[in-house]
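Recall the central idea of this unit: under ordinary conditions, the amino acid sequence of a chain determines the structure it adopts. In this exercise we apply that idea directly, starting from the sequence alone.
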Amino acid sequence: MPAPELISPRSARVTAARRLAKRNFRGKDRLFLAEGPQAVREAAGHGDTLVELFATAEAAERYADIVARARAAGARVHLADETVVADISTTVTPQGLVGVCRFLDTPFAQILASRPKLVAVLAHVRDPGNAGTVLRCADAAGAEAVVLTDASVDLYNPKAVRASVGSLFHLPVAVGVPVEEAVAGLRDAGVRILAADGAGDDDLDAELDKGTMGGPTAWVFGNEAWGLPEETRELADAVVRVPIHGNAESLNLATAAAVCLYASARAQRAFGGCRTVTPS
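Accordingly, the structure predicted from this sequence is:
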């Protein structure tokens, strides 16, 4: 097993990487951390996104394919002592791989120009774990984009990146968009706006039964604790609640987002939906 080349947490490269745990440095450098084999693998396959990779000797041997992929993508690969990687990592149990990546958010205008059929809008979402998990749900449901409003958490928060489990590298994400601008732009692009709220007047099952969910749709999700403010609810074409058929008091944000996004995905792929494929 080769000896590590970086053995001091005080080295300039390690210091530069470690400071990316803080939002102000991420914004200044336009760089963020991606930890663990899944995130690093996805970053290495995303153009020139991966700039540097810090790997313990053990991880470099175990994930030799990922290290090779990182080198092929043009990233600088550093074999580092375990204490060095742990110093950069923001997790309790580091997995031996930490990548430094370029910001990859997409201009909102570019998302609109693509005429998306399914979009998740995170308005007032403050918990980074929830933000990353909703992004993952959107990716799994086949959404074309995610929009984080200016009142939401930083997309590149290490917890959000980890919770996305690589989905951050799969679909366009716009950040810092005022919710009014997001809604207006999507509506002008022919997208119906649905606000997800436990106190909504419309029931998700009823919407499905009425056949109103087969067209292009954007779901607006609110804060984990207090949902969507009234002024945001008023921007939507409908405020929809996920029905609670049992005795649970409510659903958490990520679970509700998964239910809503998959409901739209199914309706859009049904006969007459906007994703219906007509055999030639």
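The longest strand covers residues 50-55.
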